[in-house]
Amino acid sequence: MPWRDVPAFVKRHVAEFKQGEATRAALLFLILTAARSGEVRGATWDEFDLKAGVWTIPGERMKAKEQHRVPLSSAALELVKRLKEQKLHETLAFPSPRQKVLSDMVLTSFLRRVKAPSDTPRRVATAHGFRSSFRDWASEHGYARDLAERALAHTIANKTEAAYHRSDLMEQRRPMMQKWAAHVRGINV
Asked: What is the reported pTM?
């Protein structure tokens, strides 16, 4: 989905969700955090530090098999706190109605059902495509490549360069994610 279209889509389809609507909540959280679908769908309560506003995804759940810390914007943190209060599941943050991990097809089906706009003709947006929306937005708004790539948990292909990149730039990413969340929610900052 083109990054400029994200706020209208969010306002129309996912900004408001009722108790038990884990699909909408998961999709909104995915958009706010620029995380992969599997990372969001498998999120467990013990991965969240609500005081610090950090979601720590263990390496075994990450594509690169390395732990990834996500600074939570105020909107993402508010969403997680709201879900925790709803107590939909003891362990899972976004449980399916059957109390299991949401299926990847649930997000895809939802996006198809609402005909989520895509920049690819005759196709609807995909959950994974929101990561591209975020990346384009970050580039268009002058954020350093390192910040955007770390937010997406992309690995550095060059082994020598990777050896020197030891920081996850958590605190530098925090304001970027806050501004992305403001954009997603249609708030001009």
From this structure: 0.92
Q: Which of 61, 112, 154, 174 is catalytic?
A: 154
**Which residue carries 């900052």 as its tokens?**
189
Q: What is the pLDDT along the chain (189 residues), one digit of tens a residue?
A: 999 999 999 999 998 887 778 899 999 999 999 999 999 999 999 999 999 999 999 999 988 888 999 999 999 999 999 999 988 899 999 999 899 999 989 999 999 999 999 988 889 999 999 999 999 999 999 999 989 999 998 776 656 655 556 667 889 999 999 999 999 999 875
Which of the residues 13, 24, 36, 185 is marked catalytic? 36
- The answer to whether residue 13 is catalytic is no
Return the closest-CA partner of residue 129 out of 50, 27, 55.
27
Q: Which member of 131, 135, 173, 183 is catalytic?
A: 131
Enumerate domains of the chain plus CATH numbers: 3-184 (1.10.443.10)
Cα–Cα distance between 139 and 18 in angstroms, integer? 34
Residues 6+ apart with CB under 8 A from 25: 14, 17, 79, 83, 94
